């Protein structure tokens, strides 16, 4: 089960698109078919490269544009806005998770 808020779900397609792009570009330069070693390298590099668009998308979607309202009855401040996250991690910090997964794939 995937838990997300707002545009946090975009993290998953960004990672998959970058991995597939890396595999496509690698298949142009590698003469023999993809074996398990090359697949691990492509997954690792694609995951690490996906951190860049994830970071900037997260910074864009989670920019500080929230509205703060004052409740006249209680005198409390109420902040409205959506935190774009995936598994309770803000979207821009999912970039570090992608880097970690990429390093694990490269080391395996």
Polypeptide structure, described:
The protein is an alpha+beta fold and 108 residues long. It has one domain. Helix content is 55%, strand content 13%. The protein contains three helices and five strands, in the order βααββββα. It has helices at residues 11-29, 36-61, 94-107, and strands at residues 4-5, 67-70, 77-80, 85-86, 89-90. The strands form two sheets. Strands 1-4-5 form a three-stranded antiparallel sheet, with no helix packed on it. Strands 2-3 form a two-stranded antiparallel ribbon. Helix 1 (11-29) packs antiparallel against helix 2 (36-61). The longest helix is centred in the middle third of the chain and has 26 residues, at 36-61. It is elongated.
Topology:
Blueprint: E1 4-5, H1 11-29, H2 36-61, E2 67-70, E3 77-80, E4 85-86, E5 89-90, H3 94-107
Antiparallel strand pairs: 1-4, 2-3, 4-5
Proportion of beta-strand residues: 5-15%
> Span between N and C termini?
26 Å
- Biggest sheet: strand arrangement: 1-4-5
Number of strands: 5
Task: Give the C-alpha Rg.
Answer: 19 Å
Q: Rough shape?
A: elongated
> How many domains make up the coordinates?
1
Task: Give a short account of the largest sheet.
Answer: 3 strands, antiparallel
The residue ranges in which pLDDT falls below 50 over 5 or more consecutive positions are none
Instruction: Specify the number of helices.
Output: 3
Mean pLDDT: 89
Main structural class: alpha+beta
Looking at how many chains there are and whether they match, the oligomeric state comes to single chain
Q: In percent, how helical is the residue content?
A: 40-55%
């Amino acid at each position: 089960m995937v838990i997300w808020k707002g545009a946090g779900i975009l993290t998953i397609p960004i990672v998959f698109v970058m991995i597939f792009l890396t595999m496509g570009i690698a298949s142009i330069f590698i003469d023999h078919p993809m074996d398990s070693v090359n697949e691990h390298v492509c997954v690792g590099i694609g995951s690490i490269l996906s951190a860049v668009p994830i970071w900037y998308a997260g910074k864009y979607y989670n920019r500080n544009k929230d509205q703060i309202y004052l409740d006249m009855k209680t005198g409390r401040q109420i902040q409205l806005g959506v935190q774009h996250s995936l598994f309770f991690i803000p979207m821009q910090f999912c970039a570090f998770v992608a880097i970690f997964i990429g390093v694990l794939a490269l080391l395996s």
